[in-house]
Task: inverse folding
């Protein structure tokens, strides 16, 4: 037997969870970059052309 929960009650239970996920999405990348920059002297960032990489993926031609 399932219990039906009114929409407003369900929203009250889900809203704090959505807020927690939003906060973590903002906090985790910041914490990671801070840890990397304080732990290592040199940090390099590479920007890949994803469209170009996927276009040649699996082809027999030389890159």
Result:
């Amino acid at each position: 037997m399932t219990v039906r929960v009114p929409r407003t009650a369900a929203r009250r239970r889900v809203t704090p969870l959505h807020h927690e996920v939003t906060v973590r999405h903002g906090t985790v990348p910041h914490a990671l970059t801070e840890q990397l920059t304080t732990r290592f002297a040199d940090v390099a960032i590479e920007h890949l052309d994803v469209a170009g990489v996927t276009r040649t993926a699996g082809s027999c031609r030389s890159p």
User: Anything to note?
Assistant: The chain has a mean pLDDT of 84.
